[in-house]
Write a structure and sequence with these properties.
The chain is built from 23 helices and 14 strands. By secondary structure, it is α/β, with parallel strands linked by helices. Among the domains are: 5-153, no CATH class; 283-502, Rossmann fold (3-Layer(aba) Sandwich). Helix 17 (444-455) links the parallel strand 9 (436-442) and strand 10. The protein starts with a strand and ends with a strand. One of its GO terms (biological process) is arachidonate metabolic process.
């Protein structure tokens, strides 16, 4: 529901968010109350010591105070359980209960302070009573400190500027007033987000590019969140409901809805060849991450293998620049790729906003000059990722409407300048002129590699690119079509990054609003069921929603309560700020796409030793929606992708003699 309004400002917590913290506090308070009551009843005869009367009075008042607090917290929990996310009516008394609960902190703090003072004075009474008083004071201050921390966490810097939304239609304010209100909120939100980002990235630097990245990221966040009145738990509940809804839809699909055609022999041969290439070049994409990924993949032996290189003195046999622990990085690169020192032309770990690390090596096995661009691994890289506006790309080709992700385009342009202007590629091809240029990368590096390949297409017509888990919001439609002839992308499972774009985020927000608006269960039940479903599975068709399956053109009444009046999303219009055709046009992933999808039993606690995958060529439209699930993040990890490729390639090689079954994919164990 909309955030609660207390003391004249909005807070980032809803009235139905107090069930779980309230139950936890009740558990602690009841145990505490029972312990104090037991202590008093068993030892009241031993309180005839000096100061014992004070301690006896202290315990009696504490028992009464705890009983009042327990009753108040119980009432808060009971009220918080009522209603639904979009129906806060049954919880209208919550604000009064919270005022009472906050008021009770005053006598609790006073009593905790008195207890601490008496302990400091060293009251001479029974040791057990003294220890009980010490424990009581400690618990009191822990709870008070926890409450202060919670208040800081749920404090909304914009709460004072956001008046409670009136429970009437959008005609409450005329269009001019509502537009001014929304623009004011966005301006304030942009300032707040920029302050937050600068605080989190205080060690990044303060050059012009960094300041531009701060502004771009703040504007994206403020635009995305400023037109809704959701608290974090609403988003969590919405994602949980969407996950079950998507599983239900997938389980109810008929087989002929999934299998559209049978692959021809040429498609299968092409798929096998490209899979083998992906398996080979993924080693270079992983090597670009340096020693952290290598140690993560080899936690027991990795340090021993590269330890000698870490302490090796610098030589001039190879060009190694930028960053710290360069020799450790280079040692891990040698171990991952299996190449020799002399095979590397250039290795750079220079890392700034819009400037990515990369390496250039000679791959004699495939007779190629390989350029591998590193993916996201630093705050600078994250700022590059989040500079999500679109900018025109100047290319030496006949493609019209060339637009791309701003941050990734700038990063690709940096690597391009280094390769061409510094003569790195010229040096590589002077050694191996007959080799072909291959550019690879993972995640952010995949996006930069794809754009770099397009930029190098004119001077190097034979260039190829293998993009592993690239972001969806990368290329305009025309560039996407153009890239199909020389770029291959590989996506694993429900990986969120190849489905992530500004347009898809806007779609996800609308779907969250829709599923929340249809929900007929309280939030705590949704979250409990979600935890059970993620841990132990279940039947997603038992959704606690009332979905009619239709596409409504206007937001429901429940959705209106979650939207800021005057925002474009309020009327579900197509002119949402995140769907602006100039700043955030629809963008697409690069090239042809190979999709590795886990099939069969992959239960939460499966006894199967290894996952099983289907492999197929997929259209970009299959990645037009963000899929929710526990593997949406883990499927993006490079080590998981490498293991999946190892399994798929080895099993397909073992099944070469097996007859191909009908279907658009080939399943391997």
């Amino acid at each position: 529901m909309p955030g609660m309004v207390l003391f004249g400002r909005r807070w980032a917590i809803a009235s139905d968010d107090l069930v779980f913290p309230g139950v936890f506090e009740l558990f602690v308070r009841v145990l505490w109350w029972i312990g104090i009551l037991t202590l008093y009843l068993m030892h009241r005869g031993k309180l005839d010591c000096p100061g014992g009367v004070l301690l006896s009075s202290y315990l009696i008042v504490l028992i009464i105070l705890l009983a009042v607090i327990i009753c108040t917290v119980s009432a808060i929990v009971c009220v918080s359980m009522k209603g639904t996310i979009c129906n806060p009516g049954p919880r209208k008394s919550m604000s009064k209960l919270l005022y009472v609960r906050l008021a009770l902190f005053l006598p609790e703090m006073v009593w905790a302070s008195l207890g601490a003072a008496w302990i400091e004075d060293g009251v001479q009474c029974d040791r057990t009573v003294g220890n009980g008083i010490i424990a009581t004071v400690a618990v009191s201050w822990i709870i008070i400190a926890s409450t202060v921390v919670t208040i800081v966490i749920v404090f909304d810097p914009l709460g004072g500027k956001m008046a409670p939304y009136p429970p009437v239609g959008p005609h409450h304010l005329d269009s001019r007033e509502s537009s001014q209100l929304l623009n004011g909120l966005k301006t304030a939100a942009t300032s707040v987000w920029e302050t937050r980002i600068k605080f989190l990235c205080c060690c990044v630097g303060k050059d012009d590019r960094t300041r531009v990245a701060f502004s771009s990221t703040a504007e994206l966040f403020s635009t995305y969140f400023s037109d809704t009145d959701l608290v974090p738990s609403d988003i969590a509940a919405g994602l949980a409901l969407l996950h079950q809804q998507q599983d239900s839809i997938r389980n109810n699909q008929e087989p002929d809805e999934v299998v559209s055609h049978s692959p021809g022999p040429s498609q299968e041969a092409d798929l096998d060849a490209e899979l083998e290439n992906c398996h080979h070049y993924m080693q270079f994409a992983a090597a670009a991450y340096g020693w952290p990924l290598y140690i993560y993949r080899n936690p027991f032996t990795g340090l021993c293998r590269i330890g000698g290189d870490c302490f090796r003195s610098r030589t001039t046999d190879y060009d190694l620049v930028g960053g710290d622990q360069l020799n450790c990085h280079f040692g891990s690169i040698l171990q991952t790729t299996g190449l020799q020192y002399r095979d590397f032309i250039h290795v750079s770990f220079h890392d700034k906003v819009y400037e990515l690390p990369f390496l250039v090596a000679l791959d004699h096995r495939k007779e190629s000059v390989v350029v591998a661009v590193r993916g996201t691994m630093s705050l600078q890289d994250i700022l590059t990722d989040l500079s999500a506006e679109s900018e025109p790309v100047d290319l030496e080709c006949e493609v019209q409407d060339c637009w791309a992700h701003k941050g990734i385009s700038q990063a690709a342009r940096y690597v391009y300048r280094r390769l061409i202007n510094d003569g790195i590629l010229s040096q590589a091809f002077s050694i191996a002129p007959e080799y072909r240029l291959v550019i690879v990368g993972h995640s952010l590096g995949a996006g930069a590699a794809a754009l770099l390949t397009i930029m190098l297409r004119s001077p190097y017509p034979r260039v190829r690119c293998y993009a592993f888990s690239p972001p969806r919001g990368l290329l305009s439609k025309s560039l996407y079509e153009y890239s199909k002839t020389f770029i291959v992308s590989l996506v694993l499972g429900k990986d969120v990054i190849p489905r992530l774009s500004v347009t898809n985020l806007e779609d996800l927000k609308r779907r969250i609003l829709r599923v929340i608006a249809h929900c007929n269960k309280p939030k705590y039940k949704i979250l409990l069921r979600a935890c059970w479903y993620e841990l132990f599975g279940g039947h997603p068709e038992d959704l606690p929603t009332e979905l009619d399956g239709g596409d409504l053109t206007q937001p429901l009444l429940g959705e209106r309560s979650l939207l800021a009046h005057g925002s474009p999303a309020y009327s579900f219009s197509s002119d949402s700020p995140l769907e602006s055709p100039t700043k955030y046009p629809p963008l697409y992933p690069p090239g042809r796409i190979i999709h590795l999808e886990e099939v069969g039993t992959s239960g939460r606690f499966s006894c199967y030793p290894a996952a099983r995958y289907s492999v197929k060529w997929s259209h970009e439209s299959e990645f037009s929606k963000i899929l929710i699930g526990p593997k949406m993040l883990t499927d993006h990890m490079p080590d998981i992708l490498m293991r999946a490729l190892d399994s798929v390639v080895s099993d397909r090689a073992a099944c070469v003699s097996c007859p191909t079954q009908g279907g658009s994919s080939v399943e391997v164990a």
